[in-house]
Design brief:
Elements: E1 10-14, E2 23-29, E3 34-38, E4 49-52, E5 56-62, H1 64-72, H2 78-89
Antiparallel strand pairs: 1-2, 1-5, 2-3, 3-4
């Protein structure tokens, strides 16, 4: 399987660490090795988690509306992110 590009708005699955087993959305790409992730619940916009890319599995899904807001510097709410990720965090990981 080809690894998907990590970009703003991409839904990722955490494979390692305390937060493993949950889905998050990428809010910012720090560099080639690190990204900032959040889920609007445990990790909110005010305190995103800096995570190594190698500890994440990218999904083919991109939350386009949220990703565009991040890129444009517009305000994004934790409730938007929670709503978008609700379907992911209630199902079993593949």
């Amino acid at each position: 399987m080809q690894e998907h590009d990590i970009e703003c708005g991409r839904v990722v699955f955490s494979k390692a660490g305390r937060d493993s087993g949950r889905y998050y959305v990428v809010s910012e790409v720090v560099d080639a090795n690190y990204v900032l992730i959040l889920d609007g619940e445990k990790r909110k916009l005010a305190a995103p988690k800096k995570k190594k890319v190698k500890h994440l599995r990218a999904t083919p899904d991109v939350l386009a509306g949220i990703g565009e807001k991040f890129k444009a510097g517009k305000q994004v709410f934790d409730s938007e992110i929670r709503s978008a990720l609700r379907a992911y965090n209630t199902k079993d990981p593949v």
